[in-house]
């Protein structure tokens, strides 16, 4: 019976489809304050590189902006670009952190992924960046 | 600014990618009883035909089997095949109902989709089938 | 002290600002079924005609479509047009029902408003329409 | 030790302090519909006639208006007038029902009181009125 | 190791300790209405007749009074009198129903016991009385 | 990589290990009443006959006893006997219903199984028995 | 179809409509204590400067007063004055902080905005002020 | 319309009705330990000095006793004595702290009031006392 | 009316009925680790020494074992032995702490009692022990 | 009656059935970061060595990976291998910690078991490992 499902393995894209270029920043008017900004979405989705099946997660992006904020619509398109990319959960979270740190140069950033259970086991990943002083 | 996003419009598939053939049934040993069977998933996903953006939903499939049960793994692959199909929410729910009624010939079936909000408005759809007596 | 607030009374619009014209319908492909469709938003807002202060509500629109569905984006703009209109809660709910029944000619429709408390008292209103047979 | 508390027994008012006169109605513009209107407050309070101690409750008033709605501010003042009246919980709920039925002549009315526990026992009372046809 | 616990078996009382005499009724002023009255406590406790160990439950007593209400303080003492009585859960619930029906002659009464789990299994019992017409 | 897991396939027992003999009934003292009795456990477990992996469920057994109650400790041992039996979820629920109906001859019985998700899909099954009159 | 909505773009006000003058303080009688005072509302609303659509939020204002408290009614009118102002969420939160710090000269203040999701992404912002010692 | 409500302004008492004398302490047998004791009630009520309308709160009193505990019944009567006193929320919480610190001389005490919303704004106040060492 | 209840005052036992002897320890195999062990029960019950009425609580026992664990069945019998003992809530919690510290010689122990409300006031007590180093 | 249950004592396996060999690690691409990884399952099950009855738990495994991640499918099979092993709850949690530390050499690891109540008492165990620096 398994053979039928192997044939149906979904095509997945490689990392090159992660659309880093769509990301856009906007000027932040209160750079001297240590304001915390958080974006939360229940709708992140990527694909398991081994089975080709979707991995769905709640995503939290928390940071202290320096001079820039991420523009929300560009963030949505950036996150949606993972939808058909085959990538391990732990690597996806770290990759999002790296791309946003490069864009925003924040004082602090933390990305949290809470993935729905697979085989009865849910996964939660917390990746952090802190600017050296 | 909108132009950039128009260029990035995601390719969506047509209805022909809905994988009805993967569905499989198994014999049900208690056909004389009016047993209620329900499958619930938080991870249904299709694509809006107009914007190319994902539509995520909680799906409930409730039925009174006659002689057949749907095989769960085949159901998972069937539902996953909607992932990149452009289809209106109301039509997706009715289509799932039609495909499963054709497969199982149940005494009763109900498919419920609870879609995450878009523009601040969430949508809930309940489609029903009742065998004529 | 009250005088200061009287001066600051917010301007409110009359019923003519309720934007019924923006509403648009789309063809529904399963008119023969008694499918239930529901839209839910936590963000409805109108203005108390006496105090000029906002009245916020959770709104549920539930119906059995006949030949038409309401287009979601047009619904959002229609509901947003109440934002600065001075209208009693009970009347707003009945007015929404009337406008949507006129647009969609559904088999059944129900509009529910759950307004946040004022003076410690919350209000819930359920208005219904049923097509004569 | 009990004597001290007996001395401190709070003065309670009789039924004559229930301020029925403050109640005001407003015209309802949709009398032909069977619209359901509900008012909910967590802050109703009266006094136990035997101990002089406060009885606090969540109150729900549900009705189908005929030609009148109760004005919300007058309702608040009416309910607040029970604050120092000594009255059994079961009688308070029935009295509220009677006063509002007299004022509004509704098609249907139901008053529900959910009183906080005394001696580890919470009390819930549901009193109903239905217009004879 | 079990022997030690057998020795320590708690003494339990027989049914004669159920203090039916403490129950008191008060006049109800609205006998013509079908008002529903409910008492809810999380603190009912009796003892398993076989193991001598406590059985704890949430208890709900719901009725439509005819001419009498049960006095709340007397109800508390009545329920507390089960504390050291050895009685099966199903029988306790039915006994409470019988004692209160005898006292109050209500139009309807229902007693619900929701017992904490034993051996991983919780028990819920619903006993009902309806006056013959 | 899959081969390693195939080798490790857990041994499962056949239906003959379902320990119907352990079940015991006790006399019920209120057979003339239509009392509802419910047992609820979060800890039911059987094994998928195809993968050999555990299937865990919340189980609710609801009935109106005629002359007998099931003894709770014997019920616990009966349910635990499914722990290593390979049986489809739908069949397990119907089998439990049949064994208990045979033992107790109730007026009515309903067994509900709410199984934890597999492949992102949870399953709920409701099997019913009603005595012919 | 978009054109229709562009025409309907809501007029939004500039920052000059933020009614800082309405704010009023009252004397605080316990200035020597480090008492924490918090105001929480679910009903804050401003307007997105780009789309003209409402942005709704839960707002928490937490501070340690020095010599003054904000008068609650004046705070309500101040917050309501944002209702039709076009302002970025991050800037609104910082602006509220600045206006209240200027009014109250507190020892510490923190303003938290939890905005409802847009495009499936909710935003939470925490802005802080601490008096230099 | 407001005039009617002005006439009905409730009489409120001054601070002299706060019944500090009713408070009683009992000996604490474990003064050498840093045990934390907390009392929680959902039923605190005082009156707004400006409008004469009730202010209801959840109250938490947390302390580390030194040699005395407050007697619970006397605490209840003390708290109930605020029922008709006109006092600002922030001042009520600090006053309760002062009275109990004077009575008990605790190592630490904290009083928290969580007041129900007025004008859509809820208030939470935390007042603290710490013994000097 | 009170007299009747005075007569019915429940007999309560003295401290000598607290069954410290039933407690048993078992060897702990990981004494070098700082493992935290917690036992939680919703079913603790003792009796108020003044009124003879039951006091029910949720109990949490948290410790870092040194060389011994408490045997769970013996703990259950120990806790059940408080059922008819008249003891102040604050003293019961401290007494349980002392008995278990004597038995187990843990590195750290904390006992928390969350008692159901009496007179509308719930009580929470946290008693701690820390081994001197 | 107990004898019958003694005969039915379930066979349990010894520690040698804990399938440490099935565990597999995968390379982690971000070893320089202090990323936190967590796996959560509601479906852990082992057997009480004294009664032969199942012990069910929620399990949380939290760690900071150094160079390796545990492969999720191998983790599932490892955890499932405890299903028929007789082992004390406190020892099972410590054993899982030891096996995973040996496999992954993480910078930090914590295993938490939250076991369902037995005899009305639930158990929670937290075992920790921290790499020496
Ligand atoms: Ca993976
Ligand atoms: Ca759509
Ligand atoms: Ca949402
Ligand atoms: Ca109004
Ligand atoms: Ca009463
Ligand atoms: Ca029993
Ligand atoms: Ca429990
Ligand atoms: Ca299956
Ligand atoms: Ca789940
Ligand atoms: Ca924005
Ligand atoms: Ca105030
Ligand atoms: Ca509220
Ligand atoms: Ca006490
Ligand atoms: Ca309570
Ligand atoms: Ca054990
Ligand atoms: Ca449980």
Structural class of chain A: alpha+beta
Please report the distance between the alpha carbons of the first and last residues of chain A: 58 Å
Helix content of chain A: 10-25%
Bound molecules: calcium ion
Count of folded domains of chain A: 1
* Strand order in the sheet with the most strands of chain A: 2-3-5-6
CATH level 3 topology of chain A? GTP Cyclohydrolase I, domain 2
Q: Rounded to an integer, what's the Rg of chain A over CA atoms?
A: 16 Å
- Unreliable stretches of chain A, pLDDT < 50, 5 or more residues? none
What number is the mean pLDDT of chain A? 93
Q: Give helix and strand order of chain A, one letter per element, not per position.
A: HEEEEHHEE
Care to count the β-strands of chain A?
Answer: 6
Count the DSSP helices of chain A.
3
Biggest chain-to-chain interface with counts: F-J, 20 and 20 residues
Q: Which architecture name of chain A does CATH use? A: 2-Layer Sandwich
Strand content of chain A: 35-45%
Quaternary form: homodecamer
Shape estimate of chain A: elongated
CATH superfamily of chain A: GTP cyclohydrolase I, C-terminal domain/NADPH-dependent 7-cyano-7-deazaguanine reductase, N-terminal domain
